[in-house]
Amino acid sequence: MPTSRQPAEDTPLDLAFAQELISPEVTRTLPVGLTIRPLSSDDYSRGHLTVLSVLTMVKDLWAAAWAAQFHAIGSVPDTYYPLVIVDNTLDRILAAGTLFVERKFRHGTGSRRLVAVVTSQQRNRLGLRVAQALVHISGKAGCYKTVGNCVDANIRE
Ligand SMILES: CC(C)(COP(=O)(O)OP(=O)(O)OC[C@H]1O[C@@H](n2cnc3c(N)ncnc32)[C@H](O)[C@@H]1OP(=O)(O)O)[C@@H](O)C(=O)NCCC(=O)NCCS
């Protein structure tokens, strides 16, 4: 798993993939005080699971189990790209997304993306920014398309 530094701070973060894969354009577009970056090995304490709970019932993982999953995901090369948007002042995650790269026999390389935003921050364009960042990575990974899934119950008229 690559180790990198969060550009805005001096604190070393153990990131799930290289920061360079994050779209500079999306980074520029974010409101002041928010950072978009790859998931870090200590993001359990920043509320990563709370963000994911808007998608589905989330099993209450202890920190050690969450960390084991983080490292298991990172041990599969060039496949999982989990990222987050963090409120720097609160040091809390507001939005999260993952790109999952699929290698197919008939269509080459495709990808799926999943996006979640904490309830209090929905409709503030954070979901859009996460989706744009995932599509950017998808292009860098050579995917011919990226598919976003959403259950009907979450679709608003
Ligand atoms: C769906 C979700 C990721 C969107 O993120 P967001 O930050 O709230 O949405 P944004 O402000 O970025 O909106 C982007 C666009 O999506 C639309 N949109 C947002 N949520 C929507 C929903 N639930 N149904 C339909 N359209 C939606 C917005 O109207 C906007 O459209 P526009 O560009 O035409 O104005 C977020 O609301 C969320 O996590 N919801 C709960 C979980 C979920 O449904 N995830 C989707 C996968 S199942």
Taking pLDDT < 50 over at least 5 consecutive residues as the criterion, the unreliable ranges are 1-7
Percent of residues in beta strands: 25-35%
CATH architecture field: 3-Layer(aba) Sandwich
Give the ligands present: coenzyme A
CATH evolutionary superfamily? Gcn5-related N-acetyltransferase (GNAT)
Q: Report the top-level CATH class.
A: Alpha Beta
CATH-assigned fold name: Aminopeptidase
Q: The biggest beta sheet, please? A: 5 strands, mixed
Give the number of domains: 1
Q: Widest sheet: strand order? A: 3-4-5-6-7
Order of helix and strand elements from N to C terminus: EEHEHHEEEHE
Mean pLDDT figure = 89
Indicate the structural class. alpha+beta
Helix count, per DSSP? 4
In total, the number of strands is: 7
| Shape call | globular
Helix content: 10-25%
Radius of gyration from CA coordinates? 15 Å
Distance between the termini: 41 Å
Enzyme class: transferase
Organism: Coniophora puteana (strain RWD-64-598)
EC number: 2.3.1.4
InterPro entries: Acyl_CoA_acyltransferase, GNPNAT1-like
Essential attributes:
157 residues, glucosamine 6-phosphate N-acetyltransferase activity, Aminopeptidase, disordered N terminus, alpha+beta, 4 helices, 5-stranded mixed sheet, acyltransferase, two-stranded antiparallel ribbon, single chain, Acyl_CoA_acyltransferase, Glucosamine 6-phosphate N-acetyltransferase, binds coenzyme A, 7 strands, GNPNAT1-like, globular
Describe the fold and architecture.
This protein has 157 residues and is of the alpha+beta class. The chain has a single domain (4-154), classed as 3-Layer(aba) Sandwich (Aminopeptidase). It contains four helices and seven strands. The strands form two sheets. A five-stranded mixed sheet has the order 3-4-5-6-7. The protein has a two-stranded antiparallel ribbon with strand order 1-2. Strand 1 and strand 2 form a beta hairpin. The structure holds coenzyme A. Coenzyme A binds next to strand 6 and helix 4.
